């Protein structure tokens, strides 16, 4: 036995080390606690496995040091055996580490709580924020450019916070950073919902009853809901900044913490589940947000309006309160985990020697790490390839609901629900399928990049689905002039302008005013569209010249509308109904939604592969910092500018605003909206494909010298073996 202990033992296989470490503590019966000799005075039981097992147990407990690949029994380096677990490996907060809590101290439960955090992040940031943008524009008088900046402020804060999180959190206590981040995110959700409680009630009476022709002009000031509220825009920005700071650790520390505590073969599945929760949650958030939008914003008040009314504001704030409340217990749960989970030593083949460990830590914190990453072309082009993908998702998530509202004339709640139904199976299923594909076919960096290239190119062709668009509704004085017609045998000339060009060059008040409504004293702040019998939409019953209203089972019908010119034989002259004119675009809508769903599914395939490829193309000590740098580049080049630019393009497609160039848009030109969306999406797809191809090219170039070197070593080893055989 002494000869065995003096032998220079080197374990070349990972399984041998794991077999030794997995020995139960009750087998270590051959070591005398006083002499530290395997031949101690303690009598052996019949079940003793003998001196060899005792020696192996000594290795497992760290009682004996070996030369070679083993290091000194430092818990920070080699981990603990079952007998050596101490408070550093237990769940808890400070000195409070109850035994009952340790059942949650496993990678599976860590994955659960981290997935809860990523789920809340996606549900709030993408789901609730995106579904509430239209309501915020109506309630607080914001433009699409302003709401686009609200969306981007989240990524701005993440971009600022990521360097600190990656640098300090990467070498610090990762669960604590993650837990405090969730608490900060919850605080941001409360602040985002704060304007609802600090503003006067949204008391807008049913406009159909107050906007008849010759209505009392003293009532005009009652229904200006957004007056003086646009400054709350800064409160929403502050809430989003806290959201961004709080969720910054999720994009770096969560991935690396999972990667450090699970086996390498299971890491893609764990990351796939984590990222699936992050990508599935926006769709669920949109569905929940759509449900809340069907509830009037002031739930204690009664209103005559319906969700189909253009002045309707739903209860957008409820989701933020619920999510903010859940963030706190989730944050405290994550914060309770130790730096390393019990058994995390099984995720590496061997322990690092003390000097190697020191060098690894120095490298991870060395400023030269950034230079090494910048000189890694595969890493750089992977970052540049992910940026257009993130830009596409960020822009569409922010404005796709508005797109569906305008194109298919849906309410905000219904559009959010439809968009959520599309995103649930596509994002969730696609992300999981992509991660499973990597594991099933054991794709390396090259295979992952090729997979992303194929999906991106197919997605480029599917982008042309945005050629499909519904015609813009005809609205008198906005995109069509008041027309001449015949009513009760009298020829009416209601057109004050000779051309649409002259119409667009005039002020809104001049455009909406015609001979038929010049004496009605209409208020242009009260947008309440009605559809005339001539299939033309009017700004309000007043601007349609309507003088009376009748309530029927099918809705409110206005009569005596002097601007509505219809054929006398139809019996509908001078009639209008509340709401926008319905279009016959259902067949186009079905085709559009089907192809769009397929495009989103393909896009979601490429969520996990590029992140996994990033972790595989950098060294172990650079992983946290590399992911931090990657998310900074992705946000700076993609997620931050995309909603702002896309919002500005949406503003360019606007045809009608209450205050000319300010406030929310009442009517969009559908063809322009589709054209801008098509160009933007195609550009993002082309850039993504190009950068993936460049990443593949440089990865293959960098792999050739390594392959040649390995081949030379293999040949040298074979030559030496042959010479030894001959001898």
Automatic annotation (TrEMBL):
UniProt biased composition (Basic and acidic residues): 16-26
Annotated Major facilitator superfamily (MFS) profile domain residues: 110-700
Q: How does it sit in the membrane?
A: Multi-pass membrane protein
**Keyword tags:** Cell membrane, Disulfide bond, Ion transport, Membrane, Transmembrane, Transmembrane helix, Transport
* Stretches the record annotates as Disordered: 15-53, 707-727
Which residue windows are transmembrane per the record? 109-129, 149-170, 177-197, 232-258, 270-295, 315-335, 379-404, 416-437, 449-468, 589-608, 629-650, 675-698
Q: Name one GO cellular component term.
A: basolateral plasma membrane
InterPro entries attached to this UniProt entry: Kazal_dom, Kazal_dom_sf, MFS_dom, MFS_trans_sf, OATP
UniProt biased composition (Polar residues) = 32-48
Question: SUPFAM superfamilies from the xrefs?
Answer: Kazal-type serine protease inhibitors, MFS general substrate transporter
One GO-annotated biological process of the protein: sodium-independent organic anion transport
In alphabetical order, the GO MF annotations are: sodium-independent organic anion transmembrane transporter activity
Ranges for domain Kazal-like come to: 510-565
* Subcellular localization, as worded in the UniProt entry: Cell membrane
Which family is this protein grouped under? Belongs to the organo anion transporter (TC 2.A.60) family.
> What is the designated name of this protein?
Solute carrier organic anion transporter family member
Origin species, per record, is: Mugilogobius chulae (yellowstripe goby)
């Amino acid at each position: 036995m002494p000869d065995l202990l003096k032998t220079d033992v080197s374990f070349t296989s990972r399984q041998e080390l794991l077999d030794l470490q997995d020995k139960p503590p009750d087998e270590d019966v051959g070591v005398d606690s006083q002499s530290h000799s395997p031949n101690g005075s303690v009598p052996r039981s019949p079940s003793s496995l003998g001196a060899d097992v005792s020696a192996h147990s000594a290795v497992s407990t760290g009682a004996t040091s070996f030369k070679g690949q083993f290091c000194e029994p430092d818990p920070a380096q080699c981990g603990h055996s079952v007998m050596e677990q101490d408070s550093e490996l237990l769940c808890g907060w400070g000195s409070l580490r109850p035994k009952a809590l340790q059942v949650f101290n496993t990678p599976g439960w860590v994955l659960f709580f981290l997935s809860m955090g990523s789920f809340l992040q996606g549900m709030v940031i993408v789901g609730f924020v995106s579904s509430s943008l239209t309501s915020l524009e109506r309630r607080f008088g914001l433009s699409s450019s302003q709401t686009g900046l609200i969306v981007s402020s989240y990524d701005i804060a993440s971009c600022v916070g990521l360097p600190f999180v990656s640098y300090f959190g990467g070498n610090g206590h990762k669960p604590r950073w993650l837990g405090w981040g969730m608490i900060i995110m919850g605080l941001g959700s409360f602040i985002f919902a704060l304007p609802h409680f600090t503003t006067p009630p949204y008391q807008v009476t049913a406009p159909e009853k107050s906007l008849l022709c010759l209505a009392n002009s003293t009532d005009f000031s009652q229904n200006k809901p957004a007056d003086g509220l646009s400054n709350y825009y800064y409160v929403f920005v502050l809430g989003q900044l806290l959201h961004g700071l709080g969720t910054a650790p999720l994009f770096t520390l969560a991935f690396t913490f999972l990667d450090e505590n699970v086996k390498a073969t299971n890491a893609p599945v764990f990351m796939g589940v984590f990222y699936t929760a992050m990508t599935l949650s926006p769709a669920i958030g949109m569905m929940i947000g759509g449900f809340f939008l069907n509830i009037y914003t002031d739930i204690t008040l009664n209103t005559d309006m319906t969700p189909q009314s253009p002045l309707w504001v739903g209860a957008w704030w409820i989701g933020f309160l619920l999510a903010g409340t859940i963030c706190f217990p989730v944050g405290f749960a994550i914060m309770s985990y130790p730096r390393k989970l019990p058994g995390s030593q099984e995720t590496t083949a061997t322990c690092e020697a003390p000097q190697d460990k020191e060098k690894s830590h120095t490298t991870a914190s060395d400023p030269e790490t950034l230079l090494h990453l910048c000189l890694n072309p595969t890493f750089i082009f992977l970052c540049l390839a992910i940026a257009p993908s993130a830009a596409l998702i960020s822009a569409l998530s922010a404005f796709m609901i508005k797109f569906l509202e305008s194109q298919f004339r849906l309410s905000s709640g219904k559009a959010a629900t439809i968009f959520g139904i599309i995103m649930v199976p596509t994002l969730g299923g696609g992300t999981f399928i992509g991660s499973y594909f990597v594991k099933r076919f054991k794709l390396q960096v090259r295979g992952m990049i090729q997979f992303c290239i194929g999906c991106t190119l197919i997605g480029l062709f599917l982008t042309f689905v945005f050629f499909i668009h519904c015609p813009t509704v005809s609205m008198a004085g906005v995109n069509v002039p008041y027309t001449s017609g015949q009513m009760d045998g009298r020829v009416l000339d209601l057109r004050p302008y000779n051309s649409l060009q002259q119409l667009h060059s005039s002020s809104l008040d001049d455009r909406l005013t015609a001979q038929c409504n010049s004496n009605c004293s209409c208020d242009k702040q009260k947008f309440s569209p009605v559809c005339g019998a001539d299939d033309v939409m009017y700004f309000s019953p007043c601007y349609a010249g309507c003088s009376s209203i009748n309530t029927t089972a099918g809705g409110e019908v206005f009569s005596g509308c002097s601007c509505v010119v219809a054929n006398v034989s139809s019996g509908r002259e001078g009639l209008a109904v509340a709401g926008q004119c319905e279009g016959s675009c259902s067949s186009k809508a079905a085709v559009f939604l089907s192809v769009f769903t397929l495009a989103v599914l393909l896009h979601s395939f490429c969520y996990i592969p590029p992140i996994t490829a990033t972790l595989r193309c950098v060294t172990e000590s650079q992983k946290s910092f590399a992911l931090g740098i990657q998310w900074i580049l992705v946000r700076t080049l993609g997620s931050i500018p995309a909603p702002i630019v896309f919002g500005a393009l949406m503003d360019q497609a606007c045809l009608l605003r209450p205050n000319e160039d300010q406030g929310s848009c009442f009517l969009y030109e559908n063809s322009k909206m589709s054209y801008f969306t098509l160009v933007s999406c195609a550009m993002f797809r082309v850039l993504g494909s190009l950068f993936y191809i460049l990443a593949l090219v440089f990865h293959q170039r960098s792999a050739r010298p390594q392959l040649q070197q390995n081949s030379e070593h293999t040949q040298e080893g074979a030559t030496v073996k042959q010479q030894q055989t001959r001898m």
